[in-house]
Task: inverse folding
């Protein structure tokens, strides 16, 4: 390996932000994205026979088609196209739809997969300040003569903050911009039957494309782009992360349909939001910057060593949380990322809140 690559690894180790893979944690889960507990409770035995090829060659199936028809109906969309992951969905959508000469305006805290998709696009892309719609409006005015795509998340996974859609959709309408919303961390969590924030606000017709994922609240794998039938046709023809990859096994499409449409979603949503409220009632500290109804609660520390120390103390108490460092978050904004779930016990949530309060006071 070239020395410049080794130097980058050594720098990470020196800063204390070096990443390593570990086996599944043993302890109380306050770190996974299994918000509704579907991943741990799925007891269905499936024959995961491979798809044998891409959807355009040998990998298409009745199961895939039925799944997409169901998803479109469930999420109040004209069509749905399933990708193998949320990363692949963002990559395919954002690399293929915006054209040379177009402009992408994106929230600076958007997910890395969206940034990667934009990097592969021939369009120009510019960040606007997080949730700053004055900054967004300034840039929309600057590019009034361009085709503009605005890219946001409903719920930001490293902030626990939520987009204010009324202002955003009004701006996009005024400037004729195409709005793309990643609902990776809000599908299953918000809205009737887990249809997400856009659906809860009845703004489906104001959004060009939505991305919903099935590896988080639904405990599975894959993702779907929701939009018009023409958008689906376009992605089938031009989204390289869809065209040039083997399809999911047929059984996964069946299970996506079953989990997304499960009657348990509403029940688990209710339990989850009770637990979120319990945590926020027990932990009232200025370091907690997330929305009060978010399953992701971010505790800003701002120091690598202190963040690692508090995480270690919690983990030693069997309360498993993950410290987050740059480049996932900006330098100086090191934090603890706490994920709450429908299955968390009240006594464990109370213990977590008490120990966090104690550690932050030291």
Result:
């Amino acid at each position: 390996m070239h020395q410049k690559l080794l130097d980058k690894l050594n720098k990470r180790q020196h800063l204390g932000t070096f990443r390593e893979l570990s086996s599944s944690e043993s302890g109380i889960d306050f770190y996974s994205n299994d918000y509704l507990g579907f991943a741990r409770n799925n007891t269905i035995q499936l024959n995961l026979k491979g798809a044998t090829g891409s959807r355009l060659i040998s990998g298409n199936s009745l199961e895939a088609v039925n799944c997409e028809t169901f998803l479109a109906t469930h999420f109040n969309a004209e069509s749905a196209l399933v990708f193998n992951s949320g990363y692949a969905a963002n990559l395919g959508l954002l690399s293929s739809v915006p054209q040379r000469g177009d402009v992408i305006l994106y929230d600076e805290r958007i997910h890395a997969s969206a940034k990667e998709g934009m990097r592969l696009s021939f369009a120009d892309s510019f960040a606007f300040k997080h949730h700053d719609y004055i900054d967004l409006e300034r840039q929309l005015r600057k590019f009034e003569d361009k085709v503009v795509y605005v890219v946001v998340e409903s719920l930001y996974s490293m902030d626990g903050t939520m987009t204010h859609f009324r202002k955003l959709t009004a701006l996009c309408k005024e400037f004729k911009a195409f709005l793309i919303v990643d609902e990776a961390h809000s599908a299953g969590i918000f809205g009737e039957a887990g249809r997400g924030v856009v659906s809860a606000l009845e703004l489906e017709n104001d959004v060009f494309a939505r991305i919903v994922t099935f590896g988080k609240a639904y405990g599975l794998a894959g993702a779907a782009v929701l939009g018009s039938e023409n958008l689906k046709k376009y992605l089938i023809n031009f989204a390289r992360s869809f065209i040039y990859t083997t399809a999911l096994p047929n059984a996964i499409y069946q299970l996506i349909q079953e989990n997304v449409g499960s009657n348990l979603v509403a029940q688990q949503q209710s339990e989850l939001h009770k637990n979120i409220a319990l945590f926020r009632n027990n932990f009232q500290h200025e370091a907690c910057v997330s929305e009060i109804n978010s399953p992701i609660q971010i505790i800003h520390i701002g120091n690598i060593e202190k963040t690692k120390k508090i995480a270690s103390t919690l983990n030693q108490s069997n309360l498993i949380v993950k410290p987050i460092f740059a480049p996932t978050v900006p330098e100086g904004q090191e934090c603890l990322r706490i994920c709450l779930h429908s299955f968390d016990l009240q006594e464990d949530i109370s213990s977590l809140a008490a120990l966090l309060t104690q550690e932050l006071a030291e």
Summary: The mean pLDDT is 93. The radius of gyration is 21 Å.
